[in-house]
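Propose amino acids for all 258 sites.
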């Protein structure tokens, strides 16, 4: 198993990406600490993991609260002896897309950074402090294709502050990786494209958006939740031991970075 006996904290574990990744981490042998702001949906993910024979525990923590995050990470290390993997899959507020920048209130533009980017900073740096002391660990951040859209998609989408926040998460990843690499800690950003299976009702507008986005991929399809979760498990594992400061592109070729 890729993550046998690793201690992995997953923030946003009740969400679509966080839940799928937490279940995959557990299936790969990790003891998973499920973190979110509401207990009931976290308990449901934990129940699914336990039913499959995995190990999980639940903690209610606001990932954008630096003191709460740091205290919880300290408690995890105190209880389990270490922290091996930290993944933040909390929302970057993609729901604020759709308004042109010239019409967007400044507060709506800044909100993805003030919530999602703040959360990524809080969790990544809290993990980095413990992992550098231990001399090992993997920190995974989460961006999206909005960080690097081609011109075709920039005409179609109005990403507002969401795309800016995603790009900032990727730069945070590189900067932190440069600081902690000599201490045996890796930092990797996952960059999936949109995940249609999470979109809900298939209205004509939703189907049209999916067709447009799918047509812009090299593979002629969009990524799945399980593919993102599998990539996260690989990135967190020793098999990706040479990978740090990198953006793991999971866009099916809608973005082709050099």
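Proposal:
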């Amino acid at each position: 198993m890729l993550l046998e006996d690793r201690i992995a904290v997953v923030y946003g574990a009740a969400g679509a990406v966080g839940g799928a990744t937490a279940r995959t981490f557990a299936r790969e042998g990790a003891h998973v600490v499920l973190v979110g702001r509401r207990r009931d949906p976290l308990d449901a993910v934990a129940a699914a993991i336990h039913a499959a024979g995995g190990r999980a525990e639940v903690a209610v923590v606001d990932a954008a609260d630096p003191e709460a995050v740091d205290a919880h990470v300290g408690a995890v290390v105190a209880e389990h002896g270490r922290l091996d993997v930290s993944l933040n899959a909390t929302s970057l507020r993609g729901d604020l897309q759709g308004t042109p920048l010239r019409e967007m209130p400044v507060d709506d533009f800044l909100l993805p950074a003030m919530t999602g980017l703040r959360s990524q900073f809080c969790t990544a740096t809290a993990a980095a402090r413990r992992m550098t002391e231990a001399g090992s660990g993997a920190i995974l951040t989460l961006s999206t294709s909005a960080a690097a859209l081609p011109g075709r998609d920039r005409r179609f989408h109005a990403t507002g502050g969401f795309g800016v926040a995603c790009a900032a998460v990727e730069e945070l990843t590189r900067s932190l990786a440069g600081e902690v690499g000599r201490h045996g800690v890796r930092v990797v950003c996952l960059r999936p494209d949109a995940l249609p299976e999470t979109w809900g009702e298939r209205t004509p507008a939703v189907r049209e958006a999916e067709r447009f986005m799918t047509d812009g991929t090299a593979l002629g399809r969009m990524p799945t939740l399980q593919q993102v979760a599998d990539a996260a498990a690989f990135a967190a594992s020793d098999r990706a031991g040479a990978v740090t400061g990198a953006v793991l592109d999971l866009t099916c070729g809608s973005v082709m970075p050099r």
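The chain is about 45% helix and 15% strand. The mean pLDDT is 94.
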